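Can't attach files on this board, so I'm pasting raw text. These are the components:
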Amino acid sequence: MTEQVSMLIVDDERSVRESLMHWFLPEGYRVETAAEAMEALDKMKDSSFDVVLLDIKMPGMDGIELQQRLKEIDSQMAVIIMTAYATVDTAIQALKQGAYDYITKPVDPDDLSRLIRNAVVQRRLVRENLSLKEGIRSLISVEQIVGESRQIKEILELIQTVAQSDVTVMIQGPSGTGKELVARAIHFNSNRRHFPLIAINCGALTDTLVESELFGHEKGAFTGAQYRRKGKLEMAHKGAIFFDEIGNIGPKTQMDLLRVIETKRFTRLGGNQVVEVDFRIISATNKNLEDAVKDGTFREDLYYRLNVFNIQLPALKERASDIPPLVDHFVRKFAIAMNKPFTGVDPQTMEWLKQQPWPGNVRELQNAIERAVVVGKPPLITLADLPCPTGWRASSESVADEVLPLAEIEKRHIQLALNKTGGNVSLAAQLLEVDRATVYNKVKKYSLSY
Amino acid sequence: MMLLVTIEFAGKREIGRLCDQLEARFHTEVKVTRCAFDSRAFFDLARNQYFSSAIIERLEQDLQTGDSKVLAVTGLDLYIPILTFVFGEARLNGRCALVSTYRLDNKFYGLPANPALLQERLIKESIHELGHSYGLLHCHNQECVMKSSTYVEEIDFKSSRFCDKCRAQLVK
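---
Top answer:
Structure tokens for the assembled complex are below.
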């Protein structure tokens, strides 16, 4: 069933108001009339209108001024100005101030009908568009950043500020503190939110892979390139690109990236056509890039290009007051996801949770709660439901007394290496004497936190 | 009983045929009479037209208790203030309706007279305006007599019959 069109007719002449009202009523419209501006504004307090037919000349507040006031109340309302003697000045003034159209009295019935129909359709489209955008916003909304500490409030303010601009952002902080979450919050609060946020895990890419990943390739560019493929930079057009673990990219990629950031132009591998792109860059790292610049492992010019606006995320232990709200948030989240009626954690467990070091930060806390929701019995999570993370064990504590599955030993050992290196996969790989890809595979296999 | 009032309208034959149609469509007796008031009171010198809404108001004032509905037919050119012209007017759920033949006549458009077409248009517009007085809104069915018409070609396109939906509402 179509929604009833509502119309307000504002004219100081009774005969105009009434005859127009009777002309529009058979259309099935809800029609109200007002003899002057204040009456019209009063009517706006109680109801909204799709279309307002407004006489330009009225005693007291004239139609142009009333239009401004009405638009302040409802900016999407279609205002049609009626004038007996249209002058170019008044017409321009009315349209400049947002009138949908203006008509010179008398008007042909067919023209008026068509005008009203179009105004209604436009108003409906605007409303539908806003509603769809709202729908999309809810679909793409990011996970809530939870916390009441001073540090988190400052970060939320920084996100709001930086989201409104197109400035390049670098997010720094230990592993598991929510760098990607912050990047998503920045993107989905920006004007680019209706375009994609393309994330690239630089740690997982070698110099040779990164070129085709970033720039894409033409058909036949290399063996196995059977089709033209868009790169991540091209996919991020009009949106944003998120370089996670930017500190792990090699020298060649650093140089390529610097060129693209400067020119926003590149060619696909094996191609000659220059592709122009418009994207925002957000990067994240858990490394101290200033040290890397000093060591010469990271280009200084690229560092300054990427680090225009810096956001530092604190470790969870530096904002321990946020642990209770985070715990409550994760319990709610996983209870809903797993359809288990958990209401929270018991007070003793909460105290214990608050006292732990959480070297893997929020991600580790989240994993602990997820596990507890899996194994625990509703309604409260208890200490028995929580894992004892490997990294917290005293180094002297040995697992030799108990015979564990080999996979469990491997999982714990990799977690220990990750914890010792502060989540740095490259360093962990060096300690374990394996390559980074192996560490990434194991992290994925065992759902490890780093 | 329905009252058919003529205002400055000389077409006896058209009125007779219109009466027959209205009696058949609305299942009521139709009585014809000439208007008792001077239509010059509704004349606008600047526009050279007659104010339709004011005529409707006057008809309402003159209503007799026994009349269920009043349809006035006129040869005058009608207007309401914002519009250049109207073919007719009726109040939704009101008791009076008004139809003008002035712009239904081919001669107005510089075409040869076509009495049969004029009769058909008069019947359609009369039923249409009376439909409003029975509470019917404009209909989206292209062939229904309650389809809104802002120029004569639209009147010619639609039929003089109510669609099923409008008829059901009228009966109710």
